[in-house]
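Why do we bother with a discrete structure alphabet at all? Because it lets us treat a fold like text: something you can write down, compare, and reason about line by line. To make this less abstract, here is a complete entry for Glycosyltransferase family 1 protein. Read it the way you would read a sentence in a foreign language you are learning: slowly, and without expecting to understand everything at once.
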Amino acid sequence: MKIAIITETFVPSTDGVVTRLKACIRYFQKEGHDVQVIAPDLGVYEFEGVDIKGVPARTLLLYRSKKFALPTRKVKKLLEEYNPDVVHVVNPALVGMAGVYYAKKLGYPMLASFHTQVPKYADYYNVPMFKGFLWWYFRKLHNQAELNLCTSEAVKEELLEQNFHNVHVWKRGVDTGLFHPDKYDKDMRNRLSNGQPDKKLLLFVGRLAPEKEIEKIKTVLDSSDEFALAIAGDGPHRQPLERHFQGTNTVFTGFLHGEELAKAYASADVFVFPSTSETLGLVITEAMASGLPLVAAKSGPTCEQIEDNRTGLLYDKDKQGDFTSTVLRFADETLRKRLAKNARHDIAEMGWEEQSKQVLDYYKAIAGIEGKTLGQNNVNHSSL
């Protein structure tokens, strides 16, 4: 097959969407398929032998730490030149809008995937009046696709309530070889704890943005001097966060990648995930693979990944002070070790191949290739 992937974010950017796409592309190539990526032009034009066709990118007013590509007729030209068997539009919003429009206009089978709860972000950016419009906009885009993917059962239910059509759950994946408890590193622990390795080390990994609710972790540091915090990542909210955590046992590392990131996970004690607006949270899976117990808000997506009091602790986001008291329970090292062992055990057999095969089977279904009913994926092309 010739597979065109149109995405709002790709290398050299780093996030859960990019990680998932890279794993898929490697699998598609291994299976003998040809792939082309259309993405914002960030100066990288190849990924492991796959062409990246750059679309002019610029910073936007509300999010100056990242560049975005706006809708453009260049997408039509690129699709016509490549002439794919299937088009996958990832998180359609800006350049993805052009991807949806031209894939439909040119008659290419199209799949779209939903990864980011943008309508929910309206509250964090003080524009709640746009929430209804945003749901309308994303529904309009996604319902042009023959099939839609999302990353959890909870988000699937929400999308169905918002009248998105033909929604399926895209399975989880993680590199259990890269992310492993054996990646513990004494020097990394010293770095993350700011030279205080004997403290209980909390770790957050992700984009530094208001919707991540990172500020609430400070309440733990204010309540106990047994804890230190490392925040790995970058984003538009970094400076306000640095001011917020000033005077506490907190280290900001900036972005970490590959082996360095794996060492950071394995060298910490507890992974904290305060966000309540995630569709999945790949970092949760990476933390579990690294043998880290977790603290996260009790929500649909997190309950699908974390078993309360077995692989992590879930707090009630509506209960005042529950986040702080939940994290403080990890002063008990016996509890921490038990949950850490279970977290790694539950994820040890996971990889990226199963979720990559799943989406490839969906591509074949909507393109009418290799049969019309594909076993456990339960997709019948004639009904799409």
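What the structure line is telling us, in plain words: The chain has two domains: 2-173+351-367, 181-347. Residues 371-384 have pLDDT under 50 and may be disordered.
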